[in-house]
Amino acid sequence: MRGYSQEKLSQLSGVSRNTVSTLCSNTEYVPSGSIMQKILKALREVDPSVRADQFWDL
User: Looking at the predicted structure, is the pLDDT value of residue 49 above 60?
Assistant: First the structure.
């Protein structure tokens, strides 16, 4: 959705491919704060306006 494949997001964020896959496929999964930060940091390279509440219920 933001211009990254799951594999690319995994590489750029340092989050395992399995975790990224779970994030994309399981809408009930809420990652730890550190995982959220890593994912958001990588996504903000493409879109600086990305916010956590666009992905997770906070």
Answer: yes
